[in-house]
Amino acid sequence: MDALYTAVATATHGRDGRAVLSDGSLDLQLATPKELGGSGKGNNPEQLFAAGYAACFASALGVTGRQAGVDLSNATVTGEVSIGKQGGGFGLAVVLRITLPSSVDRGTGGDLVDQAHQICPYSNAVRGNVPVQIVVE
User: Fold this and answer.
1) I need a labelling partner for 134 at 20 to 30 A (CA). Which of 5, 49, 56, 116 fits?
2) Is the dihedral of CA 50, 53, 55, 57 positive or negative?
3) Is 37 left (phi over 0), alpha (psi -120 to 50) or beta?
4) Cα 67–Cα 65–Cα 63 angle in degrees, nearest 5
5) What is the 8-class DSSP label of residue 70?
């Protein structure tokens, strides 16, 4: 792969520390979720992954829409990232909920969502490793 861009972030103290981007544009307090025994007073890696995946998939959907001449600018993507025990460690599962504009018929919209899933870098990164369920609403 020829990198077009590289993001750099540094995290300290794991789930109860900080995450900072190298350009200083983001400095987050991290906290373990209450559901996992933490304070919940900060963001956690699953939230950040959900936000990143949703944004990336929305961009991929925009690409497939433009290529097909279909306006998907009002589409929304909601990412849900779950963490749970898997074998002797932990694993993730993802649900992507896509809401398409009412002007897009279900067949065309479904095809464009499938195409977006093939070109989205997050989808390509997790394919075969993390179960991803796509729900078109």
Assistant:
1) 5
2) negative
3) left
4) 70
5) -
**CB contact at 8 A, 130 and 92:** yes
For residue 131 the two structure tokens come to 């179960």
CA nearest neighbour of 55 among 96, 18, 19: 96
Distance CA(108)–CA(46), nearest Å, equals: 31
Distances (CA, A) of 46 to 12, 50, 75, 82: 16, 6, 23, 7
pLDDT per position as a tens digit, 28-66: 999 999 999 999 999 999 999 999 999 999 999 999 999
> Nearest CA to 82 among 58, 116, 106, 53?
53
pTM over 0.90: yes
Cβ pair 98, 137 in contact under 8 A: yes
Residue 38 in contact with residue 28, Cβ under 8 Å?
Answer: no
